[in-house]
Design brief:
By secondary structure, the chain is an alpha+beta fold. It is built from nine helices and 23 strands. α1 packs antiparallel against α2 and α6 crosses α7. The longest helix has 14 residues. One of its GO terms (molecular function) is cysteine-type peptidase activity.
Length: 348
């Protein structure tokens, strides 16, 4: 049995060292004196190499219950669009599971696996987690092609509502948050008519959104001042482990959404973001650089902040707030200084 687990470990370390972005979840069990291989992977090369090594060495000693994803239900779709303002992504297909991340309305996700009202999906930053099926609209190939072609809008305020009728005080269709993306059906001076991926239509005020293509063109060359300004939009927002939205947020979710609204894609977690950009020495820090911290013996990044200049930084810790690396400053945080491990420059 240990020979099987050694091969599993070796393949996993080679092809899927980060389980947040690649699946190689295979285990070996002894059932009725028979070794059973059970689990799944979304990596065809890893799947082929694994069973080549297993079959070459032990051709008759196991029973195969390993599934190569996407599974049969997922194979019917090109992917899915998030269909609620903020979808909660969990580590397991149940509401009581840990919140791993969030995804905003209009985000395209790959679909890998279906299980009892949940879908295992992969977001544009490659993060893999489970989302309940009521939070997404599944797309056939033609649906995806259409979505890529239709005019869209992006929501600007941190929080507002989509309405049933083009008048304030109308019944609400659903909440909307900054960064949500909708299909644009109609626009005039008084309202914009939008459509959810599910096809349901609603109305928003023109000042609450921007044409998506226009927004994309405006963030092609992000600058530090805009990063800092975006960060301050969330000042005071409560902390939530796994939060990646204007409703509540964790440290890396905060940096991700701030840079994302400036057209820069960051990975989901601090330990991933520290691999992006270029290393910066403390004396060379510039506004919008990322600061990383760790209280672990292995120095794996566990916290991230955005440098503002003058030794100040803004981050999500309890709430989104400003602290300083300057020991003489009233907002100095000794714990952060003592756990500081480095900085990265994301903006070129």
């Amino acid at each position: 049995m240990s020979l099987f687990t050694d091969i599993i470990s070796d393949i996993k370390n080679t092809y899927a060292p980060d389980s947040r972005t690649a699946l190689f979840d295979i285990n070996v069990y002894l059932e009725n004196s028979v070794l059973v291989l059970r689990g799944c992977t979304n990596l065809p090369e890893a799947y082929r190499e694994f069973f080549y090594r297993i079959h070459t060495g032990y051709p008759a000693l196991y029973f195969n219950e390993v599934e190569l994803l996407p599974d049969l239900p997922a194979q019917q779709y090109a992917g899915a669009l998030i269909n609620v303002s903020v979808a909660n992504l969990r580590t397991q297909p149940k509401h009581s599971a840990e919140l791993a991340s969030q995804a905003l309305q209009g985000t395209f996700v790959k679909v890998w696996q279906h299980e009892k009202g949940w879908w295992r999906v992969q977001t544009p930053d490659d993060y893999i987690a489970w989302v309940e099926e009521d939070s997404i609209t599944l797309l056939k190939d033609t649906d995806l092609e259409r979505w890529l072609e239709v005019p869209k809008v992006i929501v600007l305020p941190e929080y507002s509502w989509a309405l049933e009728l083009p008048q304030w005080g109308s019944n609400r269709v659903g909440d909307i948050v900054r960064g949500n993306v909708f299909e644009l059906i109609e626009q005039n001076a008084n309202y914009w008519r939008i459509a959810y991926p599910s096809g349901y239509q609603a109305y928003i005020l023109p000042q609450e959104a921007q044409l998506f293509q226009q927004w994309q063109n405006s963030v092609t060359k992000p600058i530090a001042a805009n990063i800092i300004a975006e960060a301050f939009r969330y000042k005071g927002l409560p902390y939530l482990w796994g939060g990646t939205s204007p409703k509540a947020i964790d440290c890396s979710g905060f940096t991700k959404i701030v840079f994302g609204m400036n057209g820069v894609k960051l990975m989901r977690d601090a330990s991933q973001q520290i691999m992006q950009g270029t290393e910066v020495k403390v004396n060379d820090l510039q506004p919008a650089d990322l600061l990383f911290f760790s209280d672990r013996p292995d120095k794996r990044a566990t916290h991230v902040a955005i440098y503002m200049g003058d030794w100040k930084y803004i981050h999500a810790a309890g709430r989104v707030k400003v602290n300083s690396l300057d020991e003489q400053a009233p907002d100095f945080d000794a714990f952060r200084l003592n756990t500081f491990i480095g900085a990265r420059r994301i903006l070129s």
